[in-house]
Amino acid sequence: MTQTTDPVFDLTVWGPALKKYGDVVQLSVALYGADEQMVCGPLPATPIATIFQAHGYDPGVRAECLRACLARTSDDRSPVVVSTASQLAVVGVPLQLDGRTVGAVVAGYSLVNFCDSAAIARLARASGTPFPALWAVARSLRPVPSRRLVQLGELLQVLVDTLLSENAHRRQAEHAARRFSHLAGHDSLTELPNRSLLFDRLTRALALAHRHGRRLALLFVDIDRFKHINDSLGHALGDGLLQLVAREISQCVRGADTVSRYGGDEFVVLVTELKRAEDAGEVALKIVAAVTRPQTLAGHDLRISVSLGISVFPDDAQDAETLLKHADLAMYHAKDQGRGGYQFFQPELNVRAVERQSIEAGLHHALDQREFTLLYQPKVNLKTGALAGAEALIRWQHPDRGLLAPAWFVPIAEDCGLIMAIGRWVVAEACRQARAWQDAGLPPTPVSVNISAVEFRAKSFLEHIVNILNETGLDPRWLEIELTESVLMGDVTAATAVIRALKALGVQLAIDDFGTGWSSLSYLRHLPVDAMKIDKSFVQEITTGSNAGPIVSAVINMAKSLKYRVIAEGVETVEQLAFLQAEDCGEGQGYYFSRPLIAQQFARVMERGTTRSGVQPFS
Ligand code: C2E
Ligand code: MG
Ligand code: MG
Q: Is 490 in the pocket of ligand 1 (CB under 6 A)?
């Protein structure tokens, strides 16, 4: 007997209902699908119908009835009756769902009394039921007079209709219930188990692993720079990307493992039955390789990468929460290590996480306690050696840790939103200082500030700049804003609008760390920026024999042809300087000229009009 999960074809529904049906010798009832295959049945309709079924009925007759039922259009639900000259009749009723004939219910009847004492005796022996009891039942069953067959058909139809409408409700209810429980356990976008289902499975897997002394691993997967991709390509493509990554990851693991969407662009893979902890690294490598393959999504060629963190039971933690936390920490470590790779959890990471928390806690008071200061690093004209400007660089005078560079706290401030207040302070302080220098009679010098992408995207950003310029009275042309390319990877239209508005104010704009991001010069050319800062990683490789030299020359030449000022960052050696001068790079900044200075020291550089080193090699 076939049993399907669809309640329309559910034997437990049909069986009792049909049993109620008549005191006549109904030999059997069966449900057929539109393909004429029996879906369920034959159901013995009476306690001893099996005996009669043994006699069977002409399969040709049944097939004829079935086909006639299936040929019914949806508005004709009348029963089909096929009787034979012999002792059997078949009655069928089409089964219609949502206006379509999807199958038929076919019942066989005996037209004559079938009390066969020999057959009843066989059944009595086989079932262990006393013969007289069975015989009494058999005698009580009446054969169907052929004139009643149509009536029987109608009765069958009412029954089918009733069952179907009950089932329709039940089906809807069950469908809704199934959907709900699926939703409760699954993520609707990727169809992957969600966080709560993962947790259930993890808890169960941990109990099993514990009992059988087995290992298991959690892989925490995060798509690198997903936010930028999502913002720049649009959310529909972002969704497509998540689905694509979900598929790729799923194909890298065994059926017994769980791939779940943990939230946003995070996936967690539960790998059970792990022999050695290192095997989890192989799964991680497989995932990295699969995701890193060039992908095409809605006509866009994409190169994406993921960072993975791995924690292993029982090596790294005993319980689900800690295991997840450790995998997450390891994932952040993988990101720190340059993304696109994986890292196993190490106990030291816990120390770092605690440190991160303490930094965040301290950041909340740092502004009130006036613990931030700005240093100013000179930018120098590479032809003349004249001071060309200053870049304001933030430092945090931490009460316990001493002077902290931005790498220590800016990313944390970005994560917790404090960067907004800090950024406002930086701009205000730099503008105030620039104005104070001018008021003190020093030669006006452009001062640049770094704006993080998080700050730049805030709705109030532009307004704050306007207010600060008004309050400090600094002429906007002395303020330069340094933006990294990541600012431009977001909502390009919105970013462009803000850049144009800044430009309209008279503020100068520079692209910072050029070469480390994604954008090409041809893309940037549509933006009204004034300057391009070549990232120090290129500058520092100029003289190391790598191919950074040609890249730097190309960037300088392109930037010049687009009429941008070019500033080389991180100039440390005389060789680098000579190369940049030969390539006719406009400005330089770096330890070769000067380290970042406190305001009073910088004032002396302004007085002199050049840094102590000057620009020796050229002149
Ligand atoms: P950046 O804007 O590219 O700043 C240049 C960084 O290179 C500074 O690091 C500077 O001290 C360092 N540097 C300058 N010359 C040399 C050199 O010759 N060799 C080497 N190795 N490094 C050199 P710093 O001050 O640690 O700042 C790091 C980054 O933090 C900055 O990179 C900028 O992106 C960010 N940052 C700094 N101040 C602020 C701020 O006020 N707000 C925001 N949002 N970000 C800031
Ligand atoms: Mg900068
Ligand atoms: Mg830079």
A: no
